[in-house]
Amino acid sequence: MGVIETIKETLVSGDPLVRTWFMVESNYMPFVCSFLYVLFVKRIGPSIMKNRKPFDLRRLMIVYNFAIVFTYTISMILAASAAWVLYVVKYVEFIDTIFFVLRKKFHLITNLHVIHHAALPVIAWVFIRTETSGFQFFPAGLNSVIHIIMYTYYGLAAMGPEMQKYLWWKEHLTKIQMWQFVIIIVFVIVIIPLSGCQTTQHGIYIEIFFAFVFLSLFYNFYVKTYKKKQPLKMKNEVQSKKTIVSNGKSKSLNDDCYHNEEELKGKSNTLNDDFYLNEEELIPPYFSFSKVKKR
Q1: Is the omega angle on the peptide bond into residue 153 within 30 degrees of 0, that is, cis?
Q2: Are 107 and 293 within 8 A, CB to CB?
Q3: Which residues are designated catalytic?
Q4: Which residues contact 160 (CB under 8 A, 6 or more apart)?
Q5: Confidence band for 281, pLDDT divided at 50, 70 and 90
Q6: Rounded to whole angstroms, what are the CA distances from 60 to 148, 165, 270?
Q7: CA-CA distance, 119 to 37, in Å (whole number)?
Q8: Contacts of 295 by beta carbon, 8 Å cutoff, 6+ apart
Q9: What is the pLDDT of residues 4-48, one digit of tens each?
Q10: pTM > 0.85
């Protein structure tokens, strides 16, 4: 199926009832909203905040993140009717980036982060307009579970440094994301053909394409973030011990480890910023990835 045929199918096919839903019926809604989102977070927002003090949004962020958790939980319970809810939430999640703008965390607004958030309403709109079969229930449900875990983490992180001891599991969220993509790939390539379910071909192609792309990106990020820094930390510890011996100094092991951790993390990062610095590794929704931009 060519691009033109896919566009035509998107505009004219699908469940007639679904096509009458609010924010779904318009052929321009997702494109206009995504364009305005990009314009605000990349140009208008930073310009407005340039000479202003950053907002303290901690309490609002806590409420927002747990509201997203509640929304995805309800969506799983409502099943079929939740398709519209999951679609609308893609617009709500623009707030993720707006928080960055208002807090003047511009280093977190990477190109891939913006592209991800801008593309998701369009992708979700295509699926809800053309793919009303049950084949999307499983990927959507799986994605909802990931979001519940992810935004629970964000909500806890927004509470401040006192939550540090409870947030040791950030690395495992990245693993869960990668497994999500693997499961979706197997589901689309193996399970659907074996089940004999009738579905649109372009829906299959879009699902497979994004799953492979973001699985690759998440894997590369995981290796760079969690695997490569381990040998570096060991090297720094060995080098530090050599320096201590050569200078005849008696530093405690705890002080030495703390010093090396500060070198790796960067002393300018606050606890809450560290949690949100890597937030792109956790977001999909549908999928998401963004490299961490060094300060």
Answers
A1: no
A2: yes
A3: 116
A4: 58, 271, 272
A5: very low
A6: 18, 22, 19
A7: 11
A8: 107, 266, 268, 269
A9: 676 666 666 666 777 777 888 888 888 999 999 999 999 999 999
A10: no
Report residue 92: phi and psi, to 5°: -60, -35
Q: CB-based burial of residue 46 (10 Å sphere; 0-12 exposed, 13-18 middle, 19+ buried)? A: middle
Region of poorest pLDDT, from 37-51, 77-91, 123-137, 216-230: 123-137
Residue 160 tokens, joined? 């401040």
C-alpha 187 chain-centroid distance: 21
* Tokens found for residue 66: 């747990």
Take residue 146 and report the two structure tokens written for it: 């990931």
Which tokens go with 255? 């002080």
Looking at residue 288, its amino acid is S
3-state secondary structure 232-286: HHHHHHHHHHHHHHHHCCCCCHHHHHHHHHHHHHCCCCCHHHHHHHCHHHCCCCC
Tokens of 91: 């617009």
3-state per-residue secondary structure call for the chain: CCHHHHHHHHHHCCCCCHHHCCCCCCCCHHHHHHHHHHHHHHHHHHHHHCCCCCCCCHHHHHHHHHHHHHHHHHHHHHHHHHHHHHHHHHHHCHHHHHHHHHCCCHHHCCHHHHHHHHHHHHHHHHHHHHCCCHHHHHHHHHHHHHHHHHHHHHHHHCCCHHHHHHCCCHHHHHHHHHHHHHHHHHHHHHHHHHHCCCCCHHHHHHHHHHHHHHHHHHHHHHHHHHHCHHHHHHHHHHHHHHHHHHHCCCCCHHHHHHHHHHHHHCCCCCHHHHHHHCHHHCCCCCCCCCCCCCC
The Cα 289–Cα 109 span in angstroms is 12
Counting every residue, how long is the chain?
295
List, in order, residues 6 or more apart from 41 with CB less than 8 Å away.
Answer: 94, 97, 98, 100, 101, 109, 114
